[in-house]
Amino acid sequence: ELHLLESGGNLVQPGGSLSLSCAASGSTFSEYDISWVRQAPGKGLEWVSIISNTGDTRHFADSVKGRFTISRDNSEDTVYLQMNSLRAEDTAIYYCATREKCGNGVCYGLQYWGQGTLVTVSS
Amino acid sequence: DIQMTQSPFTLSASVGDRVTITCRASQSINSWLAWYQQKPGKAPKVLIYKTSNLESGVPSRFRGSGSGTEFTLTISSLQPDDFATYYCHQYNSYPWAFGQGTKVEIK
């Protein structure tokens, strides 16, 4: 089981940048893909991005493509979400989440979640 | 991109009721669907993966079914701990997507 802890959330002005971190513990971090999922205040869940266990593959939601980047440092057991050109609609709690790797024809849902970090974009 | 449409948005029910939530995908997602429960101020918790597989530790009153583009989450006998918001999630192809959520309220 992997334990996840997000940090870096803050108040930032529109057009600004912010970097979030997701630190992991409890298992072999380099075996896990890591996703970011966000939730605007009072709203539903929105998948944001994923990075493969090796860092070779990345995918993004259309709403953040070209503005957000994702990276990881497996020596530090940490994933980063770099957010640029921030907009008011990026205001949300950002969760990192993961699952056990797929095997025997089965892929799981997101089993392990952090507690989230709040990003507020406002002037 | 695949869109996920969940219904109803809210559902009022009593303890002991059978509850069904529906999730429709805009195209086939080959059974790669999960269901989550979220309570206020908490991270989501996965209940079901690959349409119908119960996550370890989840009570058997939760059941997932469906195929192709139509999926359902059924709670056979609603318990006090089940009042929460539920989300479906397709992970067949990127970008992944969640449904809008269904809030299960006390009648």
Task: Give the N-to-C terminal Cα separation of chain A.
Answer: 40 Å
Q: Percent helix among the residues of chain A?
A: under 10%
Topology, number of strands of chain B: 11
Q: Main β-sheet of chain B, in a few words?
A: 7 strands, mixed
Question: Can you put this structure into words, describing what you see?
Answer:
- The complex is a heterodimer of chains A (about 120) and B (about 110).
- Chain A is an all-beta fold.
- In chain A, the strands form 2 sheets. In chain A, strands 2, 4, 5, 6, 9, 10 and 11 form a 7-stranded mixed beta sheet that branches. Chain A has a 4-stranded antiparallel beta sheet with strand order 1-3-8-7, with no helix packed on it.
- In chain A, a hairpin with a 5-residue loop joins strand 4 and strand 5.
- Chain B has about 110 residues and is mostly beta strands.
- Chain B is built from no helices and 11 strands.
- In chain B, strand 5 and strand 6 form a beta hairpin.
- In chain B, the strands form 2 sheets. In chain B, strands 2, 4, 5, 6, 9, 10 and 11 form a 7-stranded mixed beta sheet that branches. Chain B has a 4-stranded antiparallel beta sheet with strand order 1-3-8-7, with no helix packed on it.
- At the A-B interface, strand 5 of A face strand 4, strand 5, strand 9 and strand 10 of B.
Short note summarizing the structure:
Chain A is mainly beta.
Helix and strand topology:
The complex is a heterodimer of chains A (123) and B (107).
Chain A: E1 3-7, E2 11-12, E3 18-25, E4 34-39, E5 45-51, E6 58-60, E7 68-73, E8 78-83, E9 92-98, E10 112-113, E11 117-121
Parallel strand pairs in A: 2-11
Antiparallel strand pairs in A: 1-3, 3-8, 4-5, 4-9, 5-6, 7-8, 9-10, 9-11
Chain B: E1 4-7, E2 10-13, E3 19-25, E4 33-38, E5 45-49, E6 53-54, E7 62-67, E8 70-75, E9 85-90, E10 97-98, E11 102-106
Parallel strand pairs in B: 2-11
Antiparallel strand pairs in B: 1-3, 3-8, 4-5, 4-9, 5-6, 7-8, 9-10, 9-11
